[in-house]
Amino acid sequence: MERGRRCVVILANDVRAERAFPAIVRFILDETGAPWDWEYGDMVFWNAEAHSR
Questions:
Q1: Sorting pLDDT into bands at 50, 70 and 90, what band is 20?
Q2: 35: left (phi over 0), alpha (psi -120 to 50) or beta
Q3: How many angstroms from the chain centroid is the CA of residue 49?
């Protein structure tokens, strides 16, 4: 079986949008193992589950 490659391109015009990036990537690609804390440190990310209630 041939394996493909997938990616997500996220464009935003405000740095505050970065908080949603991990949730967006997980929603589209599932868990990727991306080391978000390397780039964003202790930033509190947006929690899609908490906002869907």
A1: confident
A2: beta
A3: 14
